[in-house]
Amino acid sequence: MLTSQAVLDVIRWVMPDFRNNHDKVVFAVHAAFLTSGFDLTATGRPAFADYALSSSSQDLVGINGWNEFDKDYAFVYMNEKTSKKFLVKCLAMDDHLLIDALADGGVDVPHLEIEVGNYTTESSNVRELFKNLDKLVTDLNSEILYKLDATLEPVSSR
To answer: Which residues lie in coiled coils (predicted)?
Structure first.
């Protein structure tokens, strides 16, 4: 079940380098996908490739290169329940983060716009990186994850 604690646990386990507050929120999005049963198959430059979603590769990859671009982020996931692939792209615009997701063969593109300052702090302590994480997780679940895969059960933020 997707919870804010599970998202925070993934972030604490990986301990990625964050350049800015957008990085923090994008990594929380990534952690939400992981804790919802999605496996990462591409990120960074390979995830931006034209063939990223249609690639037959199902190999799991590490997180290297996830934030190599200044304002653009991309991830390709495979859902372990359905073996279906999903492309998630995030675009930083001022204090906003635009999140779009697409299922392989899908026509609907779930979208979520987040005001980054509503969810991050300037703390360097991993336990204090976020504020309102419960709301962020709830919004990600209802606006992105649940719409991508109706087999995912609606979950609470705790």
So the answer is: none
**How far apart are alpha carbons 99 and 88 in whole angstroms?**
7
> What is the domain partition of the chain in residue ranges?
4-148
- Edge-to-edge strand ranges of the sheet holding 38-43: 38-43, 72-79, 85-93, 96-103, 111-115
On whether the CB atoms of residues 7 and 35 are closer than 8 A, the answer is: yes
**What is the architecture of the domain spanning 4-148?**
3-Layer(aba) Sandwich (3.40)
Q: Which amino acid is at 114?
A: I
Q: For residue 43, count CB atoms less than 10 angstroms from its CB and return exposed for 0-12, middle for 13-18, buried for 19 or more.
A: buried
User: Two tokens at 83?
Assistant: 């073996």
pLDDT, tens digit, 9 for 90 and up, residues 68-88? 999 999 999 998 788 889 999
Neighbours of 29 (CB within 10 A): 23
Question: How, if at all, do strands 111-115 and 96-103 pair?
Answer: antiparallel
